[in-house]
Amino acid sequence: MTATPSEAEGSLAGRQLDALRTTYPAWDIHFRVDAPGAARWTAVLLRPVSARLSAQGVRQRIGCSDAITLASALAHQSALLHNNRANG
What we know:
Layout lengths: L6 H17 L3 E9 L2 E8 L5 H5 L5 E4 L2 H21 L1
Antiparallel strand pairs: 1-2, 2-3
């Protein structure tokens, strides 16, 4: 975590960051505050994305404004990756 808007929000963001990193270890997940009220959550897949995976909707990088939205996007990406393995 690079910065926090307030101690209470920072504590929550820290817990959310820990939960996301634990739940999605295949992703490099970060939280950053560029300005007050301008938080950015990012996740980068730690494996290459082939053309086939990309065509199926798998993304190398995801950016969201909050942890809940990022968690939802990562759950979707994980399902796509899992389905690829099951069908591959």
